[in-house]
Amino acid sequence: MNIRLRTLIMLPLAAFFLASANTVYAQNELTGDTRLACEAVLCLSSSTQPGECAPSLARYFGIKFDKPWETIKARIDFLSMCPAHNEPGMSSLIVAIANGAGKCDSAFLNRFNKIEMVRKECKKVGWYDHDQSCTTTQVELISNKKPDYCLVYENHEYTDLNTGYVGDMLTGGRWADVDEYDQALQRYKDNYQPIPRGVTYSPLNDGKSENDS
Length: 213
Description:
This is Conjugal transfer protein TraQ. It contains nine helices and five strands, in the order αααααααββαββαβ.
């Protein structure tokens, strides 16, 4: 892989491929799907993905089947074409990538990682505090908890990934990738509106409130 890509990906993982190329496979033998598989592992292990990653990522994400488990298995098989797949830690990395890549970035999490809540709003209608009129509505919020497969993917020793949650789930919180986190946090602060008095949230089919304003 060219110098730019090697410097932009994480060094520990790159060392795997350099060692493998020097001791088992000559660098010039890494062509076709073998080369694309190695590049895909490198690119999908880093939050930085330069233009050189485009061919390998297109090949990887182009592997699709009707059943999710078939897609995951086929992607594992593709990544395992890289000669370094038997190196220590590589097998678990490939499995983590196949389960998490493309499903743990902010765009995906903000769109699909949702939680349904019940929003209850009560207004005083009489002299006494218990004289209230309450309405409930079902709302969908962006969950502040990552799926387990994302935690495995991001916490692997050979990945350099971090998608953080900005703000509070009940006041418009959302996920942001590491390179846009500061800007997203500033937008959240600029648009922040506190939960109105009399409004509470509780999980769907659960009477416990998340807050009590």
